[in-house]
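Q: What residues go here?
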């Protein structure tokens, strides 16, 4: 493929979202937030009263997903059937349900082409769990970004605190580990580094340091 694809995979809270945005901005590339798609499926299923245990029904929701990513400058607004759900899809309940629906092979299959379509000139930064292994196996640059569960929970804690959301640190660590387990242990496209991915541990690095490491690797 002539379009350059950079994949950034890793567990929740490792900083993929922030880093992917920064890399995309720096290079003038498009951005795929694949986690948002799974979150949208979870939210949509909830709104449509679809039973989350019913794989086929959830996959139907995924294939019919009416979503629009509205990019202006640094901000992306996400619309589900015309409704702005940018904040709604970040709620903890949606995070949990996203990792439940993401374990269904039929849901992943339903979202595959939609994700591939994001690869447009001049390039794409794809953020997720299986970008380098499944969705863009031919990507020129693959990064696997990790950090300890505690460091990831702490970052999330600070984010939520800033938003004025009351949270319990132990609960956060527990939630993060539960999501990690579901993501790494599922049969279809489990979270794992591609064989040709460079592994970056951000536990004791600043965003700036990680950004520079990724950009150096791209060059
Ligand atoms: O990255 P984010 O936390 O927004 O993703 C939400 C959930 O979607 C993850 O916990 C994971 O279960 C799922 N996901 C996935 N594959 C991706 C991106 C996200 O299974 N490529």
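A:
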């Amino acid at each position: 493929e002539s379009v350059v694809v950079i994949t950034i995979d890793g567990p929740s809270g490792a900083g993929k979202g922030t880093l992917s945005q920064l890399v995309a901005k720096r290079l003038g590339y498009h951005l795929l937030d694949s986690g948002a798609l799974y979150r949208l499926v979870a939210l949509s299923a909830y709104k449509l009263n679809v039973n989350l245990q019913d794989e086929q029904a959830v996959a139907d929701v995924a294939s019919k997903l009416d979503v629009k990513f509205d990019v202006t400058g640094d901000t992306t607004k996400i619309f589900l059937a015309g409704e702005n759900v940018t904040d709604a899809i970040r709620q903890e309940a949606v995070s949990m349900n996203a990792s439940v629906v993401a374990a269904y092979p039929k849901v992943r299959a339903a979202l595959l082409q939609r994700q591939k379509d994001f690869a447009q000139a001049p390039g794409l930064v794809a953020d997720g769990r299986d970008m380098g292994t499944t969705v863009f196996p031919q990507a020129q640059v693959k990064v696997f970004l990790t950090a300890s569960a505690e460091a990831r929970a702490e970052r999330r804690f600070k984010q939520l605190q800033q938003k004025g959301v009351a949270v319990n640190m132990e609960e956060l660590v527990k939630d993060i580990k539960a999501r990690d387990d579901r993501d790494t242990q599922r049969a279809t496209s489990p979270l794992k580094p591609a064989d040709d991915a460079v592994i970056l541990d951000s536990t004791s690095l600043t965003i700036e340091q990680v950004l520079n490491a990724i950009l150096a690797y791209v060059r």
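A: Context that may help when evaluating the design: The mean pLDDT is 94. Residues 41 and 47 are 10 Å apart (CA to CA).
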